[in-house]
Amino acid sequence: MIEPKILLVEDEADLAELLRVTLNKEGLQQIFIASTLAQGEQLFYNVSPDIALLDVMLPDGESYELCKTIRQTSHIPILFMSAKTDEVDKLVGLAIGGDDYISKPFSPKEVAYRVKAHLRRAEYTTTPQTAVEVGPFTMRDETEIYQNGQLLELTAKEVGLLATFLRSPNRIISKETLFEKVWGEDFVGGDNTVMVHIRRLREKIETNPSAPKFITTVKGLGYKLVVPKQ
User: Fold this and answer.
1) DNA binding happens at which residues (predicted)?
2) How far apart are CA 128 and CA 110, in angstroms?
């Protein structure tokens, strides 16, 4: 990915400038800043960013709405920033399509590192790869996954999860392994994150998400993509 474009929506001008400077120091120069939902949405359509960094609480509402708008047309990584520290707030952000949730106060450098990590993974998934066919699923370039010939509308993390399962069909994969492969971080505190994304993925590929036949839970061990062996 050359010169990635970052959409930063933050209404605190000093914090937005601090993040811009820190991202610049980390080699990320194209930072597009908005301070409201309306400005953020307009910038998203005008700029077509490669990643979005969204403060949750904004003057004209919560950026969860902007996340939903972005997810209608894009699979770019979305990182939320918020002073809300309750677990339920984090789960809401992840459940509606976010890829990461950073609690305030935070280290600007940590934010920059997380942005770079998500961009690296996004760059990897855009590298041409051999098509993979497993059961009703076909994965092309690790960015597009089809089920019975129909393109699945997945977030970046959902693509990462399903791609991980498709590379190891009928094998148990632990939550720790999934988190480390898809999020690129140590598993500490990642249990609920994996569960939320698995649930959302099931809603998109299962006829009955409450009784999944593809992504099954192996109690105490993890998850398994069940498909007929060739």
Assistant:
1) 129-227
2) 30
Say which CATH class 132-225 falls into: mainly alpha
Please identify which residue in the block is written with the tokens 């811009």.
20
Closest by CA position to 192, among listed 93, 125, 116: 93
pLDDT of residue 186: 64
Structure tokens at 190: 């990642």
Domain regions of the chain by residue span:
5-125, 132-225
Contacts of 135 (CB under 8 A, 6+ apart): 169, 214, 227, 228
Name the β-bridge partners of 8.
33, 53
The sign of the CA dihedral 108, 113, 117, 119 is positive
Tens of pLDDT, residue by residue over 81-121, are 988 767 777 788 888 888 888 888 888 998 998 898 888 87
> Tokens 């988190």 belong to which residue?
179
Domain 5-125 sits in CATH at: 3.40.50.2300
How far is C-alpha 49 from the chain's CA centre? 14
- 3-state secondary structure string, the chain? CCCCEEEEECCCHHHHHHHHHHHHHCCCCEEEEECCHHHHHHHHHHHCCCEEEEECEECCEECHHHHHHHHCCCCCCEEEEECCCCHHHHHHHHHCCCCEEEECCCCHHHHHHHHHHHHHHHHHHCCCCCCEEECCEEEECCCEEEECCEECCCCHHHHHHHHHHHHCCCCEECHHHHHHHHCCCCCCCCHHHHHHHHHHHHHHHCCCCCCCCCEEEECCCEEEECCCCC
